[in-house]
Amino acid sequence: MDEKTIKKIVDKLAVASNFEATYASEDRRWFITKAIKVLSAQGVADADIQSKVTTVVGKAKTFVKANGDFKIGVKLDTKRAATERDSRGRRVEILYGLIATDSGDPGLLDTGNTALLKFVAQRRYRSIERMELFVNPNGRGYFRYPDTCPANQAKNGWRWTVNMDAQKYWEPLSPPANIPIWMKNPPTAPAAFDPVAAVKSLFTRKDDACEGNLLDCATTMNVILMDSLLEGHDPAAFMGSQAARNPIYLSIIHVNPPITQPEAFFLTDPSAEGLFVKGGIPLDDLQVGDHVYIRNHELYKTLQPTGSWNGEHALVTDCGNRVIDSDKGFKFMGHGMPHGGESGAIPRFYKGLLGEINTYLHRSYRLAAIFLNFLDSNKTSIPASKWQHDTGTATADGNTFDVDYYFFDIDFSYLDYTSKTSKSTKMAKKHEHGFVVAHAPSQNQFMLHHRRKLADAKSDGVTDRGSGVLFAVDSAPETPPKNAFDPIGWILSYLNASGSELNYTLFKRSGHSKSLSMVPLDMWELYTEPLARMPNSNDVFTTRARVSLDAAYLSFLKTAKALPP
Length: 565
Hints:
Layout lengths: L2 H11 L11 H17 L4 H22 L10 H8 L2 H14 L12 H22 L7 E2 L8 E2 L2 E2 L11 E3 L8 E3 L11 H7 L11 E2 L2 H11 L7 H9 L32 E6 L9 E5 L3 H5 L7 E8 L12 E4 L9 E2 H31 L10 E10 L2 E17 L13 E12 L4 E5 L4 H7 L7 E6 L16 E6 L5 E4 L2 E4 L4 E4 L21 E6 L5 H9 L6
């Protein structure tokens, strides 16, 4: 069917009176367009499309009107229960999204398939409400990032762990590795093996961060999606059947784990009885409840290699006007993001991410300028009592070279771009003490080392790019440097996802006095590709609850008691 005919049908059928009252104009047009595409793909003749879509629209309105207030099995206090009930528009979007995607013949609205429609809708909605009412804001005390407990740091980084109460049901599968965290069978006495109780134990509030769940966005998303399975018709029987598939099937792992046995985990199981589907979908077809990955700029990993914001695993919470870069477009929510504990569109997400990056960029700007000034002054700008020196060697690409290591025992400050400012207030500052720089004169490079002690920096060396922030001489600076140690003549070097070398111009001189200033990252530089895509494709990579009208799959769900008999 040609685009002109599709538009004509959409214009005719996507009127408000054909839909539930809260379903927005952009959603209505998407619904009609999607239904046309589904029916066309099934081989329905162009002449019959409008009639069949009209039938789908009528059935959908009747079903959504009757079921738009569906409930989920999450116990909430009075305040949060009222908040959840106010989300009818979100429930409506979920139902319409599922119906449109499977609007063919057979479809989800056909007799015998509505139980699956309700089950998947409840799973999608439960995930969002768990994220909104338990995970966020992190101050609620249910889920926090590993670095919120200082005692939680291990030699190789932060540990992932579950709350003290949940530890009777869960433990690391292969210590000292943090994850997978598997469901113990048997659990710590006197508890009995109970997958439902085990999952629910993860939603235990703790005032002390060190006693609560300390998980990043990827593992928290895994917990949220596992918890959604409790919407099964008989949760105890259903979860018991899934736990029996293998000892680690219901485990806490990265939501996109790099594993060689995908059938071993509930999130990646590709078998005929898998409960989730991972793959690509067109951006326009995102639905409320889809899991996506919102990318951060690749500079972040260089600036904060152990930081939590390399990107954000998030759920689509609302479709808005279905545009990705609009404040009124798709909204998302992840673990602690966007800041403030509410869902937000990509511009709001990126405002927080941009603030984080520019804060760390300004830290690098300050330290690099201090070090270059130190060299330019023939090492006199900082008193000799305030710095220490050691030497070493390094080898890269078969080339061995000398490295000078410096520890500067001084206070320094840098701008906090995440702080709130107004016309009458200045940007807040962060304050730290002491830093290490590794300088390779023969390579025309120096590294702001992430280690804070001279011996540790020397032990780690400089060949691993994760060891610090690397600066190199700019071979073609826009402004001629005054001398070899003028910051204008140096660039920040970082790697992209594929390992290719990229450069960022951090220093500039401007104004009449030609004073030195930092070049902050702009918002538009984050927008190149906000959502993770499939390889060699524009399709967005998602995790979503599996929908299949295959008779064998429906039989499996009934036998496992996910659906009523």
